[in-house]
From TrEMBL:
InterPro entries (UniProt xref): DUF4329
The protein's name: DUF4329 domain-containing protein
Compositional bias annotation for Basic and acidic residues: 1-10
Region of interest (Disordered), residue spans: 1-23
All residue ranges annotated as the DUF4329 domain in the record: 44-167
Gene source species: Pseudomonas shahriarae
Length: 1562
């Protein structure tokens, strides 16, 4: 044995400076540190590795990271310093307490030299200390009190030399070379082990079967393979490193989870230090401290010094056979009832080892790697969970049976004690305490589920409608069946068949399976396809497809989808544009298997897939293949698929349109709790094309036993009108009640009637009724069925829901006593014939007929419109448009294009519906635009904005004329096959319907048409001559003879969709026939200009120049009456600062100002022709000032870069040159990137007194910002010597430099002086008023309400407690010009600025320190405006919780009567609440009103405050005196309109929903 080759002495190296390897974490014992090093050594190493165990000054132990030595030798001199005597030296700050090395796995070599040994002896020999190991360890015992050997088979042994004579004799024998014949000698493996165990202390730290799986001290008579542990614990167990948290200790213990899953956690009594025992197999024994720690001398268990028991831990691995039927994904990642019961049972033994007053905890590492902590409470619920002999109070069995859900069990555990998440996972997403409202997968955005439907087909039809025209991306979702047999779908989310097959829309369990909602079984999946426009025409050429082939390819189940359907055997619905909706259910037949085989896989496509890709097999042939291999069903009638129903293997795409007939399966809406809700949904889903006049009808069914209602699909009224409200038109008959094949349990409850929105003259009363109500014939039919209703069926009438063409939803219920349309009572003049005759002769007005119907029963408005603009019951006083409110108007502009640009800025950034409005021309030639609203379609009627009655009611702006319509376009995919350029043109041009409306109007009624395009452009078309359009189109078409004589929009759209007419050519035709202008350019439309010949991306063809000259009039701001206000508008505009821009402020002869919207400087040197066409200013305007809008500083620029807070000196020099005028310098405004707005007006001459050579006073030119000085300043910037503060002071001396809007750098308002410094404290509000007592004003508005609305948007969007604002509205006596004051902020603790704003020049309080305000000539106060601070007190009662939602009487008095006493004619008072609501009160100035406003709301009587007038009572009494209105609704005031005696309920009603948008031609 001693002759094993390679074993040589481990003598120390000569003196040197070896490098101590990196040390590991700290441990409580050296055994733990040694075990850490042992685990770091590779399994079955090919060489020896070594490490040393060190003790720190704090008593902790660390081990160096093991480093490799030679194959059969490790020299510790490579890691420990050796002195001159060859002795080891302790590393600085450490004490060496042990060494550790391993043996290489030289099993083969040992066998070769010892052929008689069995495998056990081979393994024991190689895993034991060699003779030279023993000699070296005994020799170094003073330095290394212990030595560890890491065996290649996983064992870790420890030998502690004893210093006994027997050990010394054995050491000498070994050192002498182990000569034979010595009585102390050992000559076989076992005798060596026994000898070493007898002369010193030999321990097994990490064991295996060779050592009987025993740990502890090895007895001297031990035999190989035998266990020597007697069941008594004598040593501390192996423990983890010392951690700063229990979580860290448990995770360290369970780092390699195997069968060993449970253990104990200890905590320091004085510090946040934790250790955990290394895990053992799960079970109660693993949580019993007696099985872990030895007893002390007192018989009590001995724990590491300074530590107490913190708790127990385990890694939960529930058995799959115990999983509950649902929520197994939660069960496998939580405590099981049995685990809780065991833990509670073990607590009794363990708690005596806990720190005083500290409860024990149970730590659980879940399968998903989350770490949960349960802290024992001793509660009754906890006690019940731990009843001995149960599985957690029987909860395990209840979980298994499904009578208890895992989520409910989680709640039980939460109630029993304290539950925390220490380490999160997708399931346990929120760290910290877990309460009863805990939600699984809290950070996952769960798909929203739809309402329930009767069938899966109905649910998917709903999803298809939600996708609608969003065809630029693909969407996907799931169809679920609930336990009640109803169906729901997930709302569409971006994805495709791959996404839903992988389950990515839902969170996944530990096996990667999606976690679906409880009680929802997966029934099917759905995907959407992109629009036809996503294909390129070249795709058709390559595959030799027709346009129909291309359309079918995007509407059928694709190859990828078919593969997945066959693989998963789950039905799939496919949603496509143009009403394409199909379902495919695979068969399990040989034909289906053959089809799946021929499709192949994505990596290895089959023959059929390859032939489809090349065009050899056409889409129609693939559809037939699918119909043969499964059930392929069409769910919507369409031109491409024909009528809905199952597709047969011989299917061909229909050549002619389908004819409406009774469907095989009626489509229904969602299930609702009321008929009104079902009708509301039916109304909202009515999005058919409204190209022709047609009426539709349907039914609402009710469940016979439950309050469940569903609306049917709509069916067209026949030409002969003989099918209206007939059940047999929609449902097949049956021979038993309810006589028609309704869904099980349902019967007819109500009728639904709808007419499509079309344009027609309203001169005929019947046309009026068709658009705003219902023709008498149709309501008479509904009445007829009500009269025929069986007494057994119901004693009530059949409700009739009417969806009117103008967007209202009405509900009519006939009274049983009504004689309306009763032919048996002709003398009542209520027969259908009599009513029709009177309507035709004009003896009966349409609105009178409405009142007759309302009087015959109950007529309610469920959804309002302009005509029906009051929700609730229609009474005898009803009139159409009786509650109309005036439309909001934007500010006043010089040109209609400017008004359109501003209107576009008012549309919400991510609007999903088309918005539109009108542009009006005022009597003074200026323009205003209505604020955008949702419109029914792009080609909306003017009456959607201003009904005819608005002129008679005074709601149409007086003296104005409608000049133009504007509308927005929502980006979407379209069902037209075009090249990428033509597609962009099609998506960003005015619709054909809109243009034909413009072209066919009389010249006196023709309107300009504006379109806000998705690409950012804004174009305008002034109508041309239709004959010129027709002639140009004829020249473009191949078959020009096929051009119809009555060319209309429908024909043009058909030409575009078939590819005969390209969108670009159509735009060019319009440009040649009319006036097509680009107001705001884009890449597609090019620069703003008049378009005479249209070319896409025209900017690409322009020759490069120094700068691009303006080809059109610039876009300009609204009109202002202050130049500073126009500059402030440009400063606050949401424009890009990527490049430096500039513009000009112009002044009209009458004193109005407007600013051009800034354009990039390029290399123009601020030239006029960069902004104005040919450099010519608009007529009637002169140049007032210049605006420079600074760019953001370059990325990576230093903090001292001038461009952070100003512009470069050369930019100032260019502005100086442009501002130079014969009569002095024009002002220059600098809009800085840091938010400051500055105004510089240079002196005409150099400041100071100068004399010429003759001694005469000399006026020298202003030298600031000359080209020479600017060049010097730029050089200083480049060299780093530029002083910006000095530069600003020079600028201030050279002119008047004023800070209008502050920033952190430009922190002080007003004119700057020689003492200016950055970040100076701002002046007080009083000093600021002295320096500038001209309050900032907003733009000019047409109406005072619009001015007040603008001011309301300028107050802080995030109200601050105790901060209010004051404002006012100025107006002129003649023209409709109203200007708001910009809100002036003040604190509730300081005087209101009201007295400053409203102070006449002759006021006695006026002086130099308190000057009167300056307002432009011709403008006087017409209204006061108060913001946010209501003045209401909390001392009195406020049962209506008005709080700050309206002003107190005293403040209202101060803003009306008090101001009138001072001579101000205040016509209106506006109040803006902190919630953004705008209210208006028009005072009557009567004594009763004054007395009310002077009422003290509270009084102090009898030692307490008494309420004399609550805010709610004040509102009620005030509304009876003057007119109190909500102009802008919001928090608290949810409805606009006049506040009347029913305001308490009216204010809480939600605002009416917008119009249901019809499909536009795109």
């Amino acid at each position: 044995m001693d002759d094993v080759p390679g074993r040589i002495d481990r003598a120390a190296n000569p003196p040197g400076k070896p490098k101590l390897p990196q040390v590991g974490p700290a441990f409580l014992t050296q055994e733990d540190a040694a075990y850490w090093a042992h685990r770091k050594i590779p399994l079955k190493p090919d060489r020896e590795y070594g490490s040393v165990i060190l003790q720190r000054p704090d008593g902790g132990f660390v081990a160096t990271v093991p480093i490799a030595g030679e194959v059969t030798r490790f020299d510790f001199g490579t890691v420990i310093e050796v002195d001159a005597k060859g002795s080891y030296v302790h590393p600085n700050g450490y004490k060496c307490v042990a060494n550790l090395h391993c043996h290489a796995a030289l099993h083969d070599k040992i066998r070769e030299h010892n052929p008689k040994w069995d495998e056990l002896l081979v393994r024991l020999f190689i895993s034991f200390f060699s003779d030279l190991d023993f000699v070296a360890d005994v020799a170094a015992r003073d330095f290394f009190p212990a030595a560890y050997l890491s065996g290649p088979d996983g064992t870790l042994l420890k030998y502690s030399p004893s210093g006994s004579s027997a050990e010394h004799s054995y050491y000498l024998w070994r050192r002498a070379g182990s000569p034979t014949g010595n009585p102390v000698g050992t000559y076989d493996v076992m005798s060596i082990i026994n000898k070493v165990a007898s002369v010193g202390e030999l321990k097994v730290i990490a064991s295996n079967a060779d050592w009987g799986n025993s740990v502890g001290r090895v007895p001297a008579d031990w035999k190989a393979g035998q266990s020597f542990s007697g069941g008594t614990v004598s040593d501390f167990p192996l423990m983890t490193r010392v951690c700063v948290s229990a979580e860290g200790a448990v995770r360290a213990a369970l780092k390699t989870v195997d069968a060993q899953t449970s253990g104990l956690v200890l905590k320091s009594l004085t510090e946040e230090k934790y250790v955990a025992t290394h895990p053992r197999p799960a079970g109660l024994a693993a949580w019993d401290p007696e099985n872990w720690f030895p007893p002390g001398s007192d018989g009590q268990l001995k724990l590491p010094k300074g530590y107490a028991l913190e708790g127990v831990y385990f890694a939960s691995r529930p058995r799959p056979e115990e999983f509950p039927p649902s929520q197994h994904w939660l069960y496998e990642n939580f405590f099981t009832p049995q685990e809780m019961a065991d833990a509670i049972a073990s607590r009794a033994k363990a708690e005596r080892l806990a720190a005083s007053g500290q409860p024990l905890s149970l730590y659980m590492q879940a399968k998903d790697d989350a770490l949960l902590k349960y802290t024992f409470s001793g509660s009754q619920v906890e006690t019940a969970l731990g009843v001995k002999g149960t599985d957690g109070a029987g909860l395990q069995a209840r979980l298994r049976s499904g009578s208890l859900r895992t989520r409910e069990f989680v709640s039980v555990v939460i109630l029993a004690g304290s539950l925390q998440v220490l380490r999160g996972s997708a399931l346990w997403a929120r760290l910290g305490p877990v309460d009863i409202d805990w939600t699984p997968f809290a950070n996952f955005s769960w798909p929203i589920l739809s309402r329930a439907f009767l069938t899966a087909d109905d649910a998917v039809r709903y999803a298809h409608e939600q996708i609608g025209q969003r065809r630029e991306h693909t969407y996907a979702g799931y169809v679920f069946q609930r336990e009640d047999k109803r169906f729901v779908v997930t709302e569409p989310l971006e994805g495709d068949i791959a996404v839903i097959s992988r389950g990515e829309l839902y969170p996944c369990d530990t096996k990667g399976n999606p976690v679906f909602p409880d009680d929802h079984a997966l029934y099917a999946r759905y995907v959407s396809h992109k629009a036809l426009s996503q294909l390129e025409p070249t795709d058709l050429l390559v595959r030799r497809w027709s346009r129909q082939d291309a359309a079918l390819s995007l509407q059928m189940v694709s190859v990828e989808e078919a593969r997945q359907v066959f693989l998963d055997n789950i039905p799939l619905y496919v949603s496509a544009a143009q009403n394409g909706l199909v379902m495919f259910v695979p068969d399990q037949t040989a034909m289906a298997q053959d089809l799946a085989r021929r499709l192949g896989t994505a990596k290895h496509p089959g023959a059929l897939a390859r032939s489809l890709a090349t065009g050899e097999t056409l889409p129609q042939a693939f559809i037939k293949e699918q119909a043969s291999a499964g059930r392929l069903t069409v769910l919507l009638n369409s031109e491409l698929w024909g009528e809905r129903g199952q597709i047969t293997p011989d299917w061909i795409s229909p050549a002619a349109p389908w004819a409406w007939k009774r469907p095989e399966q009626v489509a229904f809406g969602a299930v609702w709790a009321s008929a009104d809700e079902a009708a509301q949904e039916r109304y909202a889903r009515d999005t058919r094309l409204h190209d022709s006049e047609r009426a539709w009808f349907g039914f609402i069914l009710k469940h016979k036993d439950r309050e469940e209602y569903v609306a049917t699909e709509m069916f067209p009224v026949g030409e002969s009108r003989n099918n209206v409200f007939q059940l047999q038109s929609m449902f097949a008959r049956q021979l038993a009640p309810p006589w028609y094949q309704f869904p099980e349990g349902f019967d007819r409850h109500a009728f639904f009637y709808s007419r499509q929105r079309v344009k027609h003259s309203l001169s005929d009363p019947r046309s009026w009724l068709a658009q705003y109500f219902i023709p008498p014939e149709d309501i008479a039919i509904a009445t007829y069925y009500t009269q025929r209703r069986s007494v057994v069926e119901s004693n009530k009438g059949i409700p009739l829901y009417m969806s009117t063409q103008d967007g209202a939803l009405l509900k009519y219920e006939r009274s049983s006593s009504s004689r309306l349309f009763d032919a048996a009572a002709p003398n009542l003049d209520l027969t259908l014939e009599f009513i029709n005759r009177n309507l035709k002769q004009g003896k009966l007005l349409p609105e009178e007929f409405v009142r007759i119907v309302a009087g015959s029963g109950q007529l309610n408005v469920l959804r309002t419109s302009l005509c029906w603009n009051g929700a609730g019951r229609v009474d005898a006083d009803w009139r159409p448009w009786m509650n109309l409110e005036r439309r909001w108007l934007g500010p006043v502009f010089q040109s209609p294009g400017d008004a359109a640009v501003h209107a576009r800025s008012q549309i919400p950034a991510f609007a999903k519906k088309t918005h539109g409005g009108l542009i009006l021309k005022r009597p003074d030639g200026l323009y205003v635009a209505t604020v955008p609203i949702e419109v029914s379609r792009e080609d909306f009627d003017v009456t959607e904005i201003y009904p005819e009655s608005s002129k008679t009611t005074g709601l149409f702006p007086a003296g104005c004329q409608v000049m133009a319509r504007y509308r927005s376009r929502i980006g979407r995919g379209v069902s037209v096959l075009l090249s990428s350029v033509e597609k962009q043109a099609y998506l960003n041009m005015l619709s054909v319907d809109t243009l034909f409306t413009a072209l066919t109007q009389a010249s006196t009624d023709a309107l300009d048409e504006y379109l806000f395009n998705p690409d950012g452009s804004l174009v305008c078309y002034q109508c041309g001559v239709l004959d010129r359009v027709r002639a140009h189109i004829a020249s473009l078409l191949k078959d020009y003879k096929g051009l119809p004589a009555d060319l209309d929009a429908k024909a043009i759209k058909q030409f575009i969709r078939t590819g005969e007419l390209k969108p670009g050519d159509w735009i060019d035709s319009l440009a040649k026939a009319g006036n097509l202008r680009v107001i705001v350019g884009s890449q597609l439309w090019g620069a703003p200009r008049a378009v005479t010949h249209w070319t896409a991306f025209s900017a690409d063809s322009l020759a490069p120049t120094q700068y691009r000259k303006a080809l059109n009039a610039p876009v300009c701001s609204p009109l202002f009456i202050q130049a500073d206000a126009a500059a402030r508008y440009v400063h606050e505009a949401g424009l890009s600062r990527n490049n430096q821009t500039f513009g000009f402020i112009l002044r009209s002869a009458e004193g109005s100002f407007m600013a051009s919207v800034p354009v990039e400087v390029q290399r123009s040197s601020l030239a006029l022709d960069r902004v104005f066409q040919n450099g010519q200013l608009p007529a009637g305007f002169e140049l007032d000032s210049i605006c420079i809008r600074a760019a953001l500083p370059p990325l990576g620029s230093g903090l001292d870069d001038v461009r952070h807070v100003f512009v470069m000196p050369t930019d100032v020099q260019q502005a100086r040159a442009r501002a130079d005028a014969p009569h002095g310098y024009k002002p220059v405004y600098f809009s800085c990137a840091d938010g400051a707005l500055l105004k510089l007006t240079l002196h005409s001459y150099e400041p100071g007194t100068f004399f010429d050579r003759l001694g005469q006073i000399e006026l020298r030119p202003n030298s600031f910002a000359t080209p020479e000085q600017a060049a010097n300043d730029e050089r200083d910037i480049a060299s780093g010597t530029f002083n910006f503060t000095d530069y600003v002071r020079r600028m201030a001396r050279a002119g008047t430099l004023e800070v209008i809007e502050t920033s952190e750098h430009w922190s002080r308002h007003g004119v700057l002086g020689d003492d200016w410094q950055p970040r100076m404290s701002d002046v007080s509000s009083a000093d600021r008023w002295i320096g500038n007592h001209s309050p900032a004003l907003g733009p000019i508005f047409h109406h005072a309400d619009d001015a007040a609305r603008h001011a309301g948007t300028k107050a802080s969007h995030e109200p601050v407690l105790g901060i209010g604002y004051e404002g006012a509205i100025l107006g002129t006596s003649a023209a409709n010009r109203f200007v708001p004051l910009e809100p002036i902020a003040y604190s509730a603790n300081e005087d209101s600025p009201l007295s400053r704003i409203f102070r006449a020049p002759g006021d006695p309080a006026t002086n130099l320190r308190n000057p009167a305000p300056r307002y432009p000539a011709g403008y006087t106060f017409v209204a006061s405006h108060q913001f946010h601070l209501s003045g209401n007190t909390t001392l009195g009662g406020d049962a209506d919780e008005v709080h700050a939602n309206f002003a107190a009487p005293a403040l209202l008095y101060a803003h009306t009567h008090e101001l009138k006493k001072q001579g101000f004619a205040i016509l209106d008072y506006y109040y803006s609440s902190p919630g953004g609501v705008l209210l208006k009160y028009t005072p009557v100035y009567k004594d009763e009103e004054r007395d009310l406003l002077l009422t003290r709301t509270v009084a102090f009587e009898g030692g307490r405050w008494i309420s004399r007038l609550s805010p709610g009572e004040f509102i009620s009494r005030l509304s009876e005196l003057g007119e109190l209105r909500v102009l802008v609704a919001g928090y608290y005031w949810r409805q606009t309109g006049r506040i009347a005696n029913h305001w308490r309920t009216h204010r809480q009603q939600p605002p009416s929903a917008g119009l249901t948008r019809s499909h536009d031609e795109l």
